[in-house]
Amino acid sequence: MLTPILNSADRRPLYEQLYRHIRAEIEAGRLRAGERLPSKRALAAHLKVSVVTVEGAYGQLLAEGYLRSEPKRGFFVQAVQQERRTDAPAAPPLAPSRPRASLPYDFSTSGVDTSLFPFSTWAKLMREVLSAQADSLLAASHPQGVPELRRAVAEHLYRFRGIRADPEQIVVGAGSETLIAFLVQLLGRDGGYGVEDPGYAKPHRILSSCGAAVRPVPLDGHGLRVDALSALKVRVVHVTPSHHYPLGIVMPVARRQALLRWASEQPGRYILEDDYDSEFRFSGRPIPALQSLDSGERVIYLNTFAKSLAPSLRISYMVLPPHLLERWRREFWFYSSTVPSFEQYALARFMEGGHFERHLNRSRTRYKARREALLSAARDTGLTRAGSFAGGDAGLHLLLWMDRRWTEAELVERAAAAGVGVSPLSACDLTPPPPDRPPALILGYTRIAAEDMAPALRHLKGAWGF
Amino acid sequence: MLTPILNSADRRPLYEQLYRHIRAEIEAGRLRAGERLPSKRALAAHLKVSVVTVEGAYGQLLAEGYLRSEPKRGFFVQAVQQERRTDAPAAPPLAPSRPRASLPYDFSTSGVDTSLFPFSTWAKLMREVLSAQADSLLAASHPQGVPELRRAVAEHLYRFRGIRADPEQIVVGAGSETLIAFLVQLLGRDGGYGVEDPGYAKPHRILSSCGAAVRPVPLDGHGLRVDALSALKVRVVHVTPSHHYPLGIVMPVARRQALLRWASEQPGRYILEDDYDSEFRFSGRPIPALQSLDSGERVIYLNTFAKSLAPSLRISYMVLPPHLLERWRREFWFYSSTVPSFEQYALARFMEGGHFERHLNRSRTRYKARREALLSAARDTGLTRAGSFAGGDAGLHLLLWMDRRWTEAELVERAAAAGVGVSPLSACDLTPPPPDRPPALILGYTRIAAEDMAPALRHLKGAWGF
Q: Which of A378, B27, B61, B301 is within CB 3.0–4.6 Å of B66 for a Cys-Cys bond?
């Protein structure tokens, strides 16, 4: 008869030890298919355990299909394959993913200075939400995001971007990546998706991994070449008109109008307006969004709080034209919101209380000072003789066009060896650039303090010898 | 000359009023393309404003492309289309989305009883995270999720599901929907995606809206019919082996092995094991996951905290086999984590502190009592003479097979009229069911207190007349 070693001192209950033993016997083939097990009462007596213990073990084996029960006859072993189980030694441990290499002077564009974030205010608001809105925190939230946040976003868009959006048109999501992937489902994979070339790499990668045919669209000094769209068979285009990444071009009104005309020429054409860093315009009023010029429901406006607050917050939003909103509600209503209610309520309070506006103003002042310190250090160190800055008055990075002494790869490598992180323009090329294009580097200035700009550029001077 | 009414009492700065006026003149065609504007000095003198004001307005118009500047000659109006602007009356307001109809007795399966959630503990942990981990909260988190949470999940999986998963294999995401959409990108859209028929509707909708060819796979009493997969040209299959939704079938070991064999027969075959409510098994030990039987890296295990904690938390996770993890890190590393770090740290503490296990135990006890109250009320009211319950010992719903007096639609409608919400089995059919299938209803029992089960069933008795 089955005689497992049942150990009362074992953390596991007796029925589980018995269950495991019998399962192992079946899997090892020592108990064969069709074999009858002892009755519960007999086995309990044999093992000096209660009948309940045996019942628990048999019940589990029945539920898992190791045994079958025949009325009045008893329990029989089922045919199961003798499978190698995970009790076998585990695979060698996986290497943890490598951390990002961090250089003393990091002109990366991928983050912001999170020390500017008013964390104590944020924490206070979060505590308020925890105590005041406990009930609403646990219920599944509205698929488009909580109404309070959508109202605050609509108000912000109206005041700062000239966009009239009904809060009902707004859809909140866990990052622009999530929203872009979602838009491919809404707009369909047919027809080409145009992206700016050079441009931000992520939209291209997301669109193509979502199954869209992605077509790089060339630029000129006014941004995306609208005249190239028809030949390229583009149906939907992703653009950054407020501040092109990385060239810094602000798309002029005539080009915006041409783009809107293109979209209105055929049904099913859409413009994804990615306004990722429009909050950071340093001179004059912010440029009106494409969306605010659109009378034909062709523009889907996208923005994120990753740049304006903190990347870890994972809150982006889009403004859907009414006819797309209706389709979305009809076909995609089953999607749950991807952002926890908690962050949404906290952000709504943050915006309603004016904290967001104040934070933007503070950040703008700080980043402007950094940009000026960078430009002034460039003059002082003589960098402006070896290259020239472009990138307009907006955004959080500058483009540095260099003379041809070195290639971009050499410049990046030498800079890194001197402790300075810069990115090559070529990282944003989707197709080979014109052979005569001079080397250029992208310098984000959100992560280096103003007083560190001069030392950073002195290191660059040592590396590049300008 | 331009003579706007500039108003110092206006909230808007003078330069902005001037900018708006000139822009409106250009758009209305009153200032024509090619026309030269007055010099800054002349206009400032005319309007009795400072030169800086005019500079601000001209600068903005230049940046937006309404003007161009020619060195030594001055400012000229650019050709722009006369576009209808959003200053025009806005479209009629959109109807807010309709709230879910809520019935007094709601046997819905879509939520859980959030009153069981230990909110004060959760709030305490969130406050701890806010004060202790402020720095790490704002930095962009690891694309797979914060290591603390992945370690806690791995530990939980090992202790409660027999799954050996390296924390490095775990990917955290904003809901199973997000993860499934993501898996289509990872596994590719080629070949068919099989889903259980009948089954949970969401995987089907997500997979097909992501561009996969979805093929419904029939079931028998042991769950998904593995023998049907080859004829259906399925390459990837989504299954709920621990507790099929809605039939409640627990897939026996022999069928699990057959499914694993099917997956191992061809490269590129995968099984998405959706373990959505496996925490709620009421008798015996939880059934080992398919993943724990898989020696060929064919199973991707998916689970969510929406059922076990609260739907609003939007935290799910998957366990990728090592070779898929490597591919993911190579090709999809650019995706940011979709879950805020804040919730991830709070949940990690919640799990490490044993709160999750205690919460599961409490919930299990509570839900078991509700299930028993439902079954006992069904006997007392005579419902068990008109129909029979199925659904095994697990999960958070039961299936009620009814005699043929009424159709499912009639049963649902009559129940609703009596204040009782039940769902028809047919809501889960992907293809027409066999004509001889009796009507069946899905009864989730997480949202009705034990003491309300008898009144709920008395209402049903009135509606159905059993």
A: B61
